User: What shape does this take?
Amino acid sequence: MAPETQLTVREMQLSEVGIRINYFHDASDEYLGVLGVDRSLLPTRQAWHAFYEEDYARPIRDRVNYSLVWQRDGQLVGFSSTDRIDFGNEAFMHLHVVQAEMRSR
Assistant: This one.
């Protein structure tokens, strides 16, 4: 019998926002194209981090963005970003898999 895999989803801490920033800034132009992201429109790493510092200082119900970390057996496999938040009613979320070899599974 194969060992059971444990999936954990938790709030991304401010100290971890570099996961998202690096995911986009370190991606190839080809991969950004697949995502529909124009590299020239990305904020600088510093500006993006400053945005998160400001957003994380707000109460959760007032945030512009809310991010989750996905872990498999304690190892980071992805993150979800949530936006268009109508607190208590709905939000839009999608998962980004950070390990390229796991994206097509």
Observations:
- The longest helix spans residues 45-56.
